[in-house]
Design a protein that fits this description.
- The protein is of the alpha+beta class.
- It is built from 13 helices and twelve strands.
- The chain has four domains: 3-101, no CATH class; 107-196, Beta-Lactamase (2-Layer Sandwich); 207-271, Helix Hairpins (Orthogonal Bundle), CATH 1.10.287.130; 283-436, Histidine kinase-like ATPase, C-terminal domain (Heat Shock Protein 90), CATH 3.30.565.10.
- It is elongated, with a radius of gyration of 43 Å.
């Protein structure tokens, strides 16, 4: 027997005992009148609390516990405990839902949910960006009324979602290339997942260009070598022609070796995740080496001057730094016409070590400057081949400087020459007083 029945029986027993006692002292009529009165009071009491309970159930207020005597106090208390438990469960579900929404919002992929009529039920911020939507404004709007890309409309209506769709030119402020895939779920609802593949497509395009460029760069000397070998094998040649052909074959073989060497240097730079060394370099020796190489390559055809702060040095990997700075000096010699001037300086400016190569060459058009450090990118292909460049020098410079937290600045004007400026950070710059003496 539960507490409600127990209290009811106890109450009735007490009322009956009280009526018997009254009947014994005041008579049966008085006892019956008292019993009727108590029952009427009890009826009003029950009716009042039933009305009170009805109002509470119609408009519940969490935390408010009505006070009452007897069984109604127990009912209100039990109802409060039940509401408290339900409230805790609702809060837990709301918290889980909020965490779920936060996780989807933090996802790098776009997520959109459609109902059975392809109307937008919800989407995260990435999907808003990819499709140009507004989650609040566009709620319950048919998605094809907002995303009018013909390929997307056909894809959504075809109901063949095994393959993903690639859409280009998406977004508003910035254009994206987006992969889209639909996953049906539930009662004819759809989940749309989007991914920004702009960078992947750019990388894939660079890979294709790289393979094409390598193939093209190696094809030319191989074609020349094959032609000369065939000529030497099938035609009688005098000693002068044979020597000339051998010299040209040696040049082409050397060209291929340079391309392969630079490719290996690039691969090593990209694959080496270790930071460069922290040893201070002997920059006096490095600058002397660069000056000797420049003079040997120029062979007196240019006016070359070097101005160096002998006490200034940096921390890093000597072979990498020499390779990067050497490429800049070599390019200046190669692309400056005979009789031109080349000026190289190594100095300290605002706590930073600065290496500058200034030449009086033909200059570089402004539209080409941002792409100079791309592999095999050339402003003038024919002129680059004539100078013997591999098209990889500035790509090597970029990777070396990135590893040393340095930056490259290029200033050029067509017909007036170019200036390449390398700035090493103050954290890698040092002064060696012993070298200044």
């Amino acid at each position: 027997m539960n507490i409600i029945w127990t209290r009811a029986i106890v109450s009735l027993a007490l009322l009956a005992a009280l009526c018997v006692a009254i009947g014994a002292f005041a008579g049966v009529r008085v006892a019956l009148a008292f019993a009727v009165l108590m029952l009427v009071v009890q009826g009003f009491f029950v009716t009042y609390h039933m009305q009170r309970l009805w109002r509470l159930l119609e408009a519940p207020v969490y935390g408010e516990v009505p006070s009452a005597l007897g069984i109604w106090g127990e009912i209100y208390y039990r109802l409060h405990k039940l509401a408290k438990r339900w409230h805790a469960q609702v809060r837990q579900v709301e918290q889980q839902h909020a965490r779920f929404i936060q996780a989807i919002q933090a996802s790098p992929n776009g997520v959109a949910m459609l109902d059975d009529h392809d109307q937008i039920e919800w989407c995260n911020a990435i999907a808003e960006k990819h499709f140009g939507l507004d989650a609040k404004r566009d709620l319950r709007q048919h998605i094809t009324h907002l995303v009018r890309h013909p390929d997307f409309v056909r894809y959504l209506n075809a109901h063949h979602y095994e393959e993903m769709l690639v859409m280009r030119g998406m977004g508003v402020s910035r254009k994206y290339t987006v992969s889209v895939q639909v996953f049906p779920y539930g009662d004819h609802r759809k989940l749309i997942l989007t991914q920004d593949i702009t960078e992947l497509e750019r990388t894939d395009s660079m890979r294709r260009d790289f393979v094409a460029n390598v193939s093209h760069e190696l094809k030319t000397p191989l074609t020349v070598l094959s032609g000369f070998l065939e000529t030497m094998r099938e035609l009688p040649l005098d000693e002068a022609d044979r020597r000339r052909y051998l010299d040209m074959m040696e040049q082409q073989a050397s060209r291929m070796q340079n391309i392969v060497r630079d490719l290996l240097v690039l691969a090593n730079l990209e694959g080496d995740m270790r930071p460069p060394g922290e040893e201070l370099l002997d920059m006096r020796a490095v600058m002397r080496h660069l000056e000797d190489d420049a003079n040997n390559l120029s062979n007196g055809r240019h006016r070359i001057t070097f101005h160096c702060d002998d006490a200034l040095t940096i921390a890093g990997a000597e072979t990498e730094v020499m390779s990067a700075l050497g490429n800049l000096v070599t390019n200046a010699v190669r692309y400056t016409p005979d009789g031109g001037t080349i000026e190289v300086t190594w100095q300290r400016l605002k706590e930073r070590a600065v290496f500058t190569v200034r030449d009086s060459g033909l200059g570089i058009p402004a539209e080409h400057i941002p792409r100079l450090t791309e592999r095999f990118y050339r402003v003038d292909r024919s002129r680059s081949r004539d100078t013997g460049g591999t098209g990889l020098g500035l790509a090597i410079v970029k990777h070396v400087l990135q590893r040393h937290n340095a930056e490259l600045d290029v200033k050029s004007e067509v017909g007036k020459g170019s200036m390449f400026i390398v700035r090493f950070p103050g954290s890698r710059t040092a002064l060696r007083k012993s070298l200044a003496a």
